[in-house]
TrEMBL record:
Residues 339-354 have a biased composition (Low complexity). InterPro entries: TPR-like_helical_dom_sf, TPR_rpt. This is Uncharacterized protein. The keyword Protein transport does not apply. It comes from Streptomyces lydicus. TPR repeats lie at residues 165-198. The lineage of its organism: Bacteria, Bacillati, Actinomycetota, Actinomycetes, Kitasatosporales. Keywords: TPR repeat. Signal peptide: none annotated. Pfam families: TPR_12 (PF13424).
Length: 362
């Protein structure tokens, strides 16, 4: 039903030299050489796109920004609407990664229009997918659920394993965040199988992270940690800096749900440092929330925790992460709720009661 996964962002001669599982240091070396040897603006645009994507995956934000803009200028000089669309897709994806969601939507919407004008079906599909993912990350499920399903149908129709895995795991994430864990697990596991059959290692790593998340919610802590270890090995092999940081944040989530608050605190601190190194504010804010929750469970002063939660709520509102903001509000309500049966209300310096393993949804 599905062919082997491929990477349409590697175009021209790069398409034969690089594959979906090429490490990003390898991609960067090959693309830089192709850029230096390019004889036409279109060749420079294609090489620049690959340079941009390698830097982005490696967590090098400034270099990725310069590279996608260079690719766009070269594509515009070449008069190639499809190449311009791919450059904007890369820029929009980078903007989303950096937490600039309004900019991501603008760039990706422009990419959709250019891809449509240039008749580039893949650029059109990937740009629409970018818009769908941006809405999903914001928590606007009503607006993007149908688009995810549409893109999944298109990917299946064309036998595109990589895009099928992306759409299916996105739909699974929405089910998971709205509490339908059975459906989420079914879709995450199917996407992991499709990724493995299509030899899409990166897609499998992200899918395994989703499976681990749901398994953890169900109390299968050790199984979840094993799955994350398998995914981490893939991330390290492919130099996936951002995916590795999110893997570590998920490991912290699993430990937190299991009541291992000290280990969770240390692991959140690790992912926080990784996100800061790559200037990724969304992951940084989510790690800060996990760190605040872990410290609260370990007895941190209540007033200090509430001050940090207020700052995080503002950050999530600024970035546009509705679901994450709801998590802050829910945790604050839990900390400040009056206990039943005449138990004293939480006070500064008090350790909040240990709660059962519930989904952190971060």
């Amino acid at each position: 039903m599905y062919g082997k996964a491929f990477a349409p962002e590697y175009q021209g001669e790069l398409g034969s030299a690089l594959g979906v599982n090429s490490s990003y240091e390898e991609v960067l070396t090959t693309a830089r050489r192709a850029h230096a040897e390019a004889g036409t603006p279109l060749e420079r645009a294609r090489a620049g796109l690959a340079v941009a994507e390698a830097h982005r995956r490696l967590g090098r934000v400034a270099e990725a920004g310069a590279a996608w803009r260079d690719s766009y200028r070269s594509a515009r000089t070449a008069g190639d609407a499809g190449a311009m669309a791919w450059a904007l897709w890369s820029g929009g994806t980078l903007a989303r990664q950096c937490g600039s969601l309004p900019l991501a939507r603008r760039l990706l919407a422009h990419a959709v229009a250019l891809a449509d004008a240039g008749g580039d079906r893949l650029a059109h599909g990937y740009s629409l997918a970018g818009l769908a993912e941006t809405g999903r990350i914001q928590g606007d499920y009503a607006a993007v659920a149908a688009l995810h399903e549409q893109l999944l149908a298109q990917a299946r129709e064309h036998g595109e394993a990589r895009h099928t895995v992306w759409a299916m795991s996105g739909i699974a994430q929405m089910h998971r965040n709205t509490g339908d864990y059975d459906k989420a697990l079914e879709l995450f596991e199917e996407s992991a199988r499709i990724a493995e059959a299509g030899e899409d290692a990166r897609g499998r790593a992200w899918s395994l992270r989703g499976v681990a998340d749901v398994r953890s919610v169900r109390g299968e802590t050790e199984r979840a940690l094993d799955l994350l270890s398998e995914a981490e090995a893939i991330c390290r092999r492919m130099d996936l800096a951002s995916a590795l940081a999110y893997n570590h944040k998920m490991r912290a989530n699993v430990l937190y749900r299991a009541g291992r608050y000290a280990s969770a605190r240390d692991t959140y601190a690790r992912s926080l440092a990784e996100f800061r190194d790559m200037q990724e504010p969304r992951g940084e804010a989510l790690s800060r929330l996990g760190l605040a929750k872990s410290r609260a469970r370990l007895g941190r002063d209540l007033d200090e925790t509430l001050t940090e939660l207020a700052a995080l709520e503002q950050d999530f509102a600024r970035i546009g992460l509705r679901h994450a903001r709801e998590m802050v509000i829910a945790f604050r309500a839990e900390l400040t709720a009056r206990p039943a049966a005449g138990t004293p209300a939480p006070r500064s310096g008090a350790t909040t009661p240990r709660s059962p393993a519930v989904p952190a949804r971060s």
